[in-house]
Amino acid sequence: MSLNPQQMRATREELQANFALTGLTKTQVATDLNISVTKLDRLFDLTQQSLEDPWILRNYLIDQVEAAGKTPVPFTALSGDWHRHWFLNSAVIDRREMSAGNR
């Protein structure tokens, strides 16, 4: 599934807004997800090649925002149950298994 330019812009903004709500640094998020800050930046910019990685970041951010006692900013394109999207490997998302490398 490809996102159109409007969906890309909205998703970038939603990721950033939820990141801000966590109160965490990029280094903390990257460490928690066992990825580099470079890869995290690619995820925030939606230039990461893996389709599952943005969903993993999304789920992580939602969990962190809720753990901080706040309400997450809703996602418009990355919404619903990822198990229902045929093009996603839901088991990888469930395990929070980021793709290898910075691509």
TrEMBL record:
It comes from the Bacteria. This is DUF2316 family protein. It comes from Lactiplantibacillus pentosus IG1.
